[in-house]
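Bug #77: duplicate submission created two jobs. Keeping one. Sequence:
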Amino acid sequence: MAAHYLDFERPIADLESKIEELSRLSETAGPGAFESEIQALRDRAQQLRKEAYAGLDAWQKTMVARHPERPHLKDYVAGLIDEFVELRGDRKFADDQAIVGGLGRFRGLPVVVMGHEKGHDTTTRLKHNFGMARPEGYRKAVRLMDMAERFNLPVITFVDTAGAYPGLGAEERGQAEAIARSTERGLVLETPMVATIVGEGGSGGAIALAGANKVLILEHSIYSVISPEGAASILWRDGARAKDAASNMKITAQDLIQLKIVDRIVDEPAGGAHSDPAAAIEAVGDAVEDELKKLMRLSPAELKKQRAERFYAIGREGLQ
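Kept job's structure:
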């Protein structure tokens, strides 16, 4: 499958096209032919990639967060969770595959793990509804958190959604109430909970899985109350001004850490998580493990107190 390049990656795409062309010529010219030229182009492409990703603006980061080759929930489960057993359904209406969750072992520790799954091709994107959950998805999340508390299991979540599904059926089945219940369940959970924003963290659909003791975010992920396109449509009645909205909304990891909305930024490989998914997944795993080890020392009451203080403090700095 051909690589997907973003607009600002075009110079890199041109270099990698030349590398492919020289590599094909090298196969016919014999071993070692053009080796030095190919290596020089690879070095130049890597340097361009580092330079490009070191200076991304908010809109470019939004594009990276949405990159179709970025690791999704199932990639994190495959890379970090052993003996994973998926648990389906909300025991009320249906099973929503926009949120996937279950039981497994994270580096030897029994956990409940769940998150948004967007899918990676047309078939799976339709199956998972592009990661936009309906009420039954959030009610499944509540059921899994209930189970985690009953059996004293830590909860790990991976957030990656443009937002909750806004369809008529979802609204009829109580979308807002389901999101509120899932958010509340996370906030009062008596076991450790660590959430990681691995792509888009959109609106209530994201916070429903991020009422955690620690909220981590990948370096080029975003977390916002509304999409830049939605904000532009409301503010200027012009969705084409999404870039302006993104620049003013403070949605990047670097903005969010200063505002104390997230607790930790997880560095991505040069070129973004999609350029080296295995390295990105490993980095997330290391960060989650580090945070869980600290949280496991706290009692249920201390976990709830820490979580409450964390969220009460958001937006209050400088108001005293």
